[in-house]
Amino acid sequence: SYAIQFDASANATSSITYCVIDSGTTGLNIRKDGLTITNTTIRHSKYAGMYFYQCGPKDSASFLNNAFLANGSSSTFYPLVIGADYLNRLSGTGTFTGNAAQAIRVEDATVSITGRWKKHSVPYVFEGSTVINNTSAGVVITVDTGTVMQFKESASLKIDAATFIAAGTA
Fold first, then answer.
1. What b/e sequence results for 7-46 when a residue is b if at least 16 CB atoms lie within 10 Å of its CB, and e otherwise?
2. How far apart are CA 31 and CA 93, in angstroms?
């Protein structure tokens, strides 16, 4: 069972702010796009701490200062799971402490909206095939300096008629 689940039919004005969610199998299972989740601690979840299923937070200002603490019963479970097409909605703030997998799992998707992938204190781990695709106007993905992107053995990131800008430091 999930500690808290937002179904796709939940109201988009729903929010979680300054809460502690403790000891669920999955702390937050979210199937509703556009929620606000700020200043919240998700801890001791058996599987994922927070799982966005084909959705994401409203925007980066609606996903601030969340803490992920001691989630996952093995390294196959991540504190935060989100699709590649919603990475631009993460703020880059927040903390990750003592989780079985100290990373953000990125699920495969087609990214077709311009955005910025922000640096976190943990890496993004890509586990499938992600495509950045220019389906209409010029899609540009910019990756913050210092962002770590890791790829599982069969994972890939394909830039297809879009612009991908990732600049490190010397």
1. eeeeeeeeebeebebeebebbbbbebbbbbbbebbbbbbe
2. 22
Q: Is 126 exposed, middle or buried (0-12, 13-18, 19+ CB in 10 A)?
A: buried
Residue 143, C-beta contacts closer than 8 angstroms, at least 6 positions apart: 116, 117, 149, 164, 165, 166, 167
Residue 66's closest CA among 15, 125, 100?
A: 15
Q: For 133-169, what is each residue's pLDDT tens digit?
A: 866 668 999 999 999 999 999 999 999 889 999 988 8
Comparing CA positions, the residue from 143, 160, 152 lying closest to residue 78 is 152
Strand, coil or helix: 154 = coil
Query: Which residue type, as a one-letter code, is found at position 169?
Result: T
Query: What are the pLDDT digits (tens) for 36-53?
Result: 999 999 999 999 999 999
Classify residue 63 by burial, with Cβ atoms within 10 Å: 0-12, 13-18, 19+: buried
Q: How far is CA 21 from the centre of its chain?
A: 18
Q: Mind listing the pLDDT tens digit for each residue in 1-15?
A: 789 999 999 999 999
For the cut 70, the answer to whether the pLDDT of residue 77 exceeds it is yes
Q: Whole-prediction pTM value?
A: 0.96
